[in-house]
Write a structure and sequence with these properties.
Length: 236
Amino acid sequence: MLAAQPFSENRCYAGMEGSKAAKKSVRKSPEAKIREGYIAHVLEYGERPASVYKFIKNIKIKEEEFYEHFNSFENIEKDIWLNVFNTTLEAVKSDSVYDEYSVREKMLAFFYTYIEQLKSYRSFILQTVPKKIRPELTPYYLIDVRKAFKDWVNELLLEGEETEEIEKRPLIGKKYDEALWLQFLFVIGFWIKDNSKAFEKTDAAIEKSVNLAFDLMGRGPLDAIVDFGKFLFQNR
């Protein structure tokens, strides 16, 4: 079983910090300006803007420019979450040792880095997200993230089958991506409620839940029993 932090000390954060520094000299995109303005409004007033008109007046953009990128406040929230996911995945994949990681390690690296990214948005998240996330339901603001996450996860699952980290199972194997999505929701929900120093409990929850998931997806005693049963049936 892997240790809690099988990666470099910075867990891909160095690359993230470098990219932040590079972006300081680059003019913000309209999407970024709208996202930041929306977050600032929610944090200051504790609710969504009363209207698009009042919102664009405060952040000083034209209405047509707003609608070029978003058509509702809900879509801004979706974009905020998707942007965090994409930034995380980009940072993890850009790590020089990413390709050397096992599939399990790639998943651990993603979750550790993802939580680090979310810290910058914690006040906004606590303001807008219920403390109890129901894993069986995907919140509207995570719909786009769900698709992007499952696309990436399915790449990992194929890689895991090729390296034999993951056992090929005709029926339940098709549900692995959904199971890992539920784990994603579990991690977010746990972090939202976590009041431990530096979110140490969340780090432990990530380690234990990811290791359990990959232990279950890997070859285990049940597979040996099934193989033995097939052998006995074929040689009865």
